[in-house]
């Protein structure tokens, strides 16, 4: 049994991670500022005596005694991370520095939730970890993309300079129950629109691609990485099936049996044209294999949204 800190623990991925860690018998400290997370995501855990909740912002330092830190605190949806862009970059730079300082003092192992966005609008396809990316440093996505790139740099420098025990996971588009209804990401938008019979809003012509990972597969990959010795990453975790946004819209209309119509809206600037993880490194080092097919995962997510909207 370990003492484990999960920052961003009241968010979509963080709440699933807290749940799994508690199931495995650990003591979990969930830390969140509730910017995009909610108490509802974790209310089923609050009766567990091994679960602690702290309202805190990682941009401010905090003193805790923990053995492992999963640093997930950061808004993940473009709508939310662009709402206060300066705060987003502070979360990835000052926040990650604070968490690394904590890891250094407490001699804790720290895992940073990085992102496929470090590859920007990629020229190499699918994306391998040794690809350095194609990122606009001054665009509307930069607060998130460049913030996460600096966070990786800080992780590596604390590792080289202070021997902090680090892990970096590059997460590709992940979906599942407990995404926020107003999250603005494509899977939650399309499902909510389909269930309400509203128009399905495709940005651009819908030929851009993404690869969608069910949250349980991601949590498995993250926990395997955290507990793997002599391997820091960065390592891609996701699902390597690749779909156009139009295919996703059609699949969701079919699975929800919806009468919704597809409408086309302008493509936001710097929206990547294609994205698919090369999972060779995860397969080799972590024996990772995504198990949930996108149709199966979408059905579970549709069931969740049907019960909450
Ligand atoms: P989310 O928005 O649901 O969760 C983020 C959580 O962090 C929220 O609970 C929010 O309140 C909290 N938070 C934000 N800023 C904070 C701060 N300064 N201090 C304390 N708490 C703060 O998003 P998610 O999808 O669960 O993403 C979790 C992590 O995974 C993020 O770091 C994100 O960048 C990364 N990630 C997610 C995806 C994805 O597809 N879901 C893809 C790549 C990377
Ligand atoms: N998207 C869309 N309609 C929506 C929301 C998103 O067509 O209602 C598109 C978006 O432009 C992008 C893709 O879906 O091309 C994935 O968007 P998301 O915000 O989920 O993730 P990210 O762009 O960060 O991968």
Overview of the structural elements:
There is one protein chain. This protein has 309 residues and is of the alpha/beta class. It has a domain at 3-174 and 213-239 and 275-291: Rossmann fold (3-Layer(aba) Sandwich), CATH 3.40.50.720. Helix content is 38%, strand content 17%. The chain contains 9 helices and 13 strands. The protein has helices spanning 12-23, 78-83, 85-106, 142-162, 186-196, 215-226, 245-256, 280-286, 294-308; strands at 3-7, 27-32, 51-55, 68-71, 109-115, 166-171, 174-175, 200-203, 209-210, 213-214, 235-237, 243-244, 262-265. A 7-stranded parallel sheet has the order 3-2-1-4-5-6-11, sandwiched between helices. A two-stranded parallel sheet has the order 7-10. α1 (12-23) links the parallel β1 (3-7) and β2. α5 (186-196) crosses α9. Nicotinamide-adenine-dinucleotide binds next to α1, α3 and β5. Residues 77-78, 173, 185-186, 189, 201-203, 208, 210, 245, 267-268, 271 line the site of uridine-5'-diphosphate.
């Amino acid at each position: 049994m370990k003492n484990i800190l999960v920052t961003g623990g009241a968010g979509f991925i963080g709440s699933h991670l807290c749940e799994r860690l508690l199931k495995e018998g650990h003591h979990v400290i969930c830390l969140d500022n509730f910017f995009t997370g909610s108490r509802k995501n974790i209310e089923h855990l609050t009766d567990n005596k091994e679960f602690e909740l702290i309202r805190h912002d990682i941009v401010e330092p905090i003193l805790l005694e923990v053995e492992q830190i999963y640093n997930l605190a950061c808004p993940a949806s473009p709508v939310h991370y662009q709402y206060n862009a300066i705060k987003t970059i502070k979360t990835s730079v000052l926040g990650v520095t604070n968490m690394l300082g904590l890891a250094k003092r407490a001699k804790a192992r720290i895992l940073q939730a990085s992102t496929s966005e470090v590859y920007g609008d990629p020229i190499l396809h699918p994306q391998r970890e040794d690809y350095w990316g194609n990122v606009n440093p001054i665009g509307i996505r930069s607060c998130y993309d460049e913030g996460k790139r600096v966070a990786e740099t800080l992780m590596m420098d604390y590792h080289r300079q202070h021997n902090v025990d680090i892990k970096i996971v590059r997460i590709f588009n992940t979906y599942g129950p407990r995404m926020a209804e107003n999250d603005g990401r494509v899977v939650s938008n399309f499902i909510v629109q389909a269930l309400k019979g509203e128009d399905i809003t495709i940005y651009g012509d819908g030929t851009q691609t993404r690869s969608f990972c069910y949250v349980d597969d991601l949590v498995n990959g993250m926990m395997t990485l955290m507990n793997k010795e002599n391997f820091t990453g960065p390592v891609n975790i996701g699902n390597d099936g690749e779909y156009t946004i139009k295919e996703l819209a059609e699949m969701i209309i079919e699975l929800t049996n919806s009468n919704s119509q597809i409408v086309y809206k302008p493509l936001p600037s710097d929206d990547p044209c294609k994205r698919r993880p090369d999972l060779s490194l995860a397969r080799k080092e972590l024996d990772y294999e995504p198990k949930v097919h996108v149709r199966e995962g979408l059905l579970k997510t549709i069931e969740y949204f049907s019960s909450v909207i």
